Write the structure tokens for this entry.
Amino acid sequence: MIDEATFRRESDKALESLKQSLISAEDDDAGFEFEDNNGVMNILFENGSSKFVITPNTPIRQVWISAQATSFKLDWAEATATFSLAKTGEDLKTLVQRLLREHLADPSITLP
């Protein structure tokens, strides 16, 4: 397990990168809105059907995503210097992109 300072630094960097990508995709009228509330990221869908919540969990050193009635827990992968989902190997941005595509049934959504 990485130490707390490293986790905070790396999770802040990863979440800021994701935030910028979501803002860019949101500008493309992708069918969702992005909000950042004190470190908790919310993706709200225009049809009001649901939302995704993305948050760092410092005590456990994971980034958590609540989406599609599922909890995704991403661990720090030192080899790739990314937060990734052990089950699929997807990094944070790739996973969120896939979840957005699935939820909105829009394979063209891209998180730069």
In short: The radius of gyration is 13 Å. Helices lie at 4-27, 92-104.
